[in-house]
Structure formats: C-alpha cells, structure tokens
Write a structure and sequence with these properties.
Layout (H helix, E strand, L loop, with lengths): L1 H15 L1 H7 L8 H13 L2 E5 L8 E8 L5 H7 L6 H6 L4 H8 L4 E9 L2 E10 L4 E9 L9 E6 L6 E4 L10 E10 L8 E8 L11 E7 L10 E11 L2 E10 L4 E7 L5 E6 L3 E4 L4 E3 L7 E5 L2 E6 L10 E12 L4 E5 L4 E4 L5 E8 L6 E8 L16 E3 L5 E3 L3 E5 L3 E8 L8 E4 L6 E9 L2
Parallel strand pairs: 2-7
Antiparallel strand pairs: 1-26, 2-8, 3-4, 4-5, 5-8, 6-9, 9-10, 11-12, 12-13, 13-18, 14-19, 15-16, 15-19, 17-18, 19-29, 20-21, 20-28, 22-23, 23-27, 24-25, 26-27
Length: 451
C-alpha cells in the first residue's frame, strides 16, 4: 500500500505540469467510440439494479455526482501517452467527446488539493469549467486498506444554501484501493460562478465500527479568465413536422463543455414527445456530436419547452453544421395515464400489453408501498436502455397529488422490472400514474442546416 501511495504522490506533480506535457504529445482527435459503445453495452447486458431519486429542483445549482472505479484499455493508454496522472481523468469523461476535446485543448485546470480523515484520503485533482458547467475530478484512496466506502452521501456548496443535489451513487466493493469520479455543477442561467467552490463531502459509511461521520472540505479555485466569453450563439428558429407533431428549434449556444439547444413543442400536438432517439449535430465531414447520455440530458422550461444538452464541438470549429434525427419516443396524450387498482392489484388502464403490474408490496425499511411493473420489449432500438417510466407525481381517486421520490429498474435487453415507491397513506383507489418515457415512436427525417 505504501508503494501505491508513493506512486500517486508522484503523479500529482505531473498533473500540475500537464500543460507542458500535452504540448509535446500528439493526441489523436478521436478515440474509437465503437469499442466503448461495446463496453457500455456489455455492462448493461448484465443484470443489475439502478436506483433513481425523483424531485423537482428549483435551486441555483444542480449537482450531479458519479463515482467509478478506474479501468483502462489499450486505447485509453495510447490516448493519454506519457501522462500517468491524466489517465484516470480521461477515463472518467470518455463518454463525452466534447470533454475529451476540452482536455486535448488544454482546458483542464489542475487543482491537487488533498485531505485525509479516518484513513480515507480525498484529492481534488482538477476541474473543467465554463459559464454553463463545472466538472470536478476527485480521487479517494483507502490509505490503510481497512475502510469500506458505501455511499457518497452529501455534497454541497457552503456558499449556496439553496443547492439541490441529484444523487446517482453506487456502493463500492470491500477492500477497495482507489476510486475516482466526477461531480457536475450546473449554474442556473444568469448565476455567477464564484472564484472558489467551497465544497463539503460526506460518506454515509467509512468503517463498520465508525462512530463519527467525517466531512471533507475544500476551497477549490476557479480560474474564470480561462473561459470568460468562450461561447457561440446561433439562431436556428426553424419548425419541423414529424407525423403531424410540430417541433421548433430555437437558439443554440455552444460552450466548451456542452451545447444547449432550445426546443418548443406545439401545445396543439396530439402526442406527448418524450425523447429524441438519435438527435445529433453533424458537420461537413460527417463527424457527429450526440446528446449527452451520461449526466443531465436536458432541463424543462415549461410543459412544452425545454433545453437539450449535446456534447460540445466548440474546439472543432466546423465549417458547416446540421441538426439531424429520424425518430422520437412519443405517445398519444390521452394514453399517458396508468390507473392502478391497489386493492385488487391490477391495472385498469395502460398504454399497451407490453406493460403489466407484477405485484404491490411494502418496503421493509420505511413501510413505503412498492408498485412492481414489468415491461417486455424486443425492439432493437431499445436494447441497452432502461426507461424511467413514470413521472414523480401521482394521484389517488380523490384527486389528491403525491410525490414519489424513488424508483428502481432492473432487467435485461427484452424484459425490465420497474419498482415505483409510494408513500404510506390511506389512498382512495385507484392510483393514477403518468408515463414519462415509453418505447412507442414517431418517425420522420429532421435535417436542419445551422451554418
């Protein structure tokens, strides 16, 4: 273990000198995406359970936190060349071509702050930041091999008491040595980015016998001069019709970390449009930049307006750019209600025969009710996709509204189990749930020239 610590301490100075190293090393402009698509598909094919917490967030910053064990491939090793400290950082953002380009173009801000408590050393390795997004890279080290981190329970900015946190954390195996991950911060429109991010981290379990719950605190410097004014704006302002459903694409803003496109849906549309299957930006060379699929994919402005987020091509500077798609997941608005008779444990209404009610149970931990659904779907377009079936709001027969704050999904390519947690209440049956995403579609080519 001491050898491991020595190695990591040697790597931190290399991260600090990353700028000079990158100028001397030829980094390819693109890593083989097909290989990593296969890896992601393989992981999804294994049976697993994914938990999500649902809530309406209105605070100034939204934090999305993800943690991952470090894994390397020959392709990643070749990509980062002779910079050992950069290897895990590139691995963590390998799902996002735009962030890879940001590192390639010297956009990383090295930090190298560390703090050790209760045998756990946490290091803030660096950040990538602009006016739209801040990505914080961190490392956890199990210094004596005795500790077990189960969950990153708390992340907050102490200077902003209204910070909302969207948790997507996963337990880690026993006897771990090193964990590295990222934290995404999304300032609201018009919110200023501070000179320092004063952040607090806490884990819900460090050792089996731990009696205290230590917190790690950092003041992370932000070099705002590095990204000041780095954005480009385009007015698309074009309306398309797909199977009679009208969609208007408004302004597009290009930042180094992501692209934002405003989308409006005609209120008179007969269908609720959930998500675009293959919406992408494509340049004159055929290179594509897809919507973000690991992190915050979009934000709702109103019932019929939203902002979609794409991987950024800011550092590519394409001569021509097109917005393209061919299918959209959608459903007739009248079919979105799913009514559950909780007394007879049966569905009174549902979109189609793919969705069934498997069981209604009770959580052993807090007494919450659990609605267990099953969905069978063999459409190739939906392979390796887990659907967030329902909105968080549901109603009972009296018309009273409630909020579900947790759901879980598990399954394989063709069959999924979805658990929807409901509060312990004296409901008037039936309950009404509202479809948020479903494998029904409309098709039609969208091909808009942006520049």
């Amino acid at each position: 273990m001491s050898e491991f610590r020595d190695q990591h301490e040697q790597e931190l100075p290399q991260l600090e000198a990353m700028k000079e190293y990158m100028e001397d090393i030829a980094i390819p402009s693109e890593v083989d995406e097909k290989i990593w698509s296969g890896i992601r598909a393989g992981r999804l094919r294994r049976r697993r359970r994914v938990y999500t917490r649902m809530a309406a967030y209105t605070a100034c910053l939204l934090l999305l936190v993800s943690a991952a064990s470090v894994r390397f491939s020959p392709e990643v090793a070749a990509y980062v060349g002779e910079i050992p400290a950069l290897r895990p950082l590139v691995e963590l953002i390998h799902y996002d071509k735009g962030l890879e380009l940001a590192i390639d173009n010297d956009f990383m801000q090295p930090v190298g702050l560390s703090e050790e408590q209760d045998g756990i050393k946490m290091t803030i390795d660096g950040i990538i930041a602009d006016e739209s997004r801040i990505i914080v890279f961190y490392t956890l080290e199990n210094m004596d091999g005795q500790k077990s981190v189960v969950n990153l329970e708390k992340v907050e900015l102490t200077d902003n008491k209204n910070t909302s946190i969207s948790q997507a954390f996963y337990p880690h195996e026993e006897d771990w040595k090193i964990i590295q991950g990222t934290i995404d911060l999304y300032p609201n429109e018009g919110a200023s980015i501070p000179d320092y991010l004063n952040m607090i981290f806490r884990f819900d379990k460090v050792t089996e016998s731990a009696t205290n719950r230590p917190e790690w605190q950092f003041a992370i410097p932000v070099d705002k001069a590095k990204f000041e004014g780095l954005k480009e704006t385009y007015d698309i302002n074009q309306t398309v019709s797909v199977e009679g459903q009208k969609i208007t694409f408004g302004a597009m803003t290009v930042y180094p970390t992501r692209i934002e496109i405003e989308v409006d849906y005609d209120p008179s549309n007969s269908k609720k449009l959930f998500y675009f299957d293959d919406l992408r930006l494509e340049d004159e060379k055929g290179e594509t930049f897809s919507t973000i699929n690991n992190g915050v994919t979009g934000s709702n402005i109103s019932e019929n307006s939203q902002v979609l987020y794409f991987q950024s091509n800011y550092f590519r500077k394409p001569k021509h750019l097109y917005l393209r798609a061919s299918s959209i997941r959608a459903m007739d608005k009248a079919m979105r209600e799913v009514k559950v008779d909780i007394d007879r444990k049966e569905l009174l209404t549902r979109p189609d025969s793919k969705l069934t009610l498997k069981d209604i149970g009770t959580s052993s931990e807090d007494g919450q009710g659990i609605l267990v659904f099953e969905m069978k779907n063999e459409n190739p377009l939906d392979q390796n996709h887990m659907f967030s079936l329902f909105e968080s709001t549901y109603k009972d027969a009296s018309g009273q509204s409630f909020e579900s704050h947790m759901a879980s999904t598990s399954g394989n390519e063709a069959e999924y189990e979805y658990q929807y947690f409901i509060k312990k209440e004296n409901y008037q049956s039936p309950l009404t749930l509202y479809i948020q995403d479903y494998p029904t579609r409309i098709h039609g080519d969208i091909d808009l020239r942006i520049k």
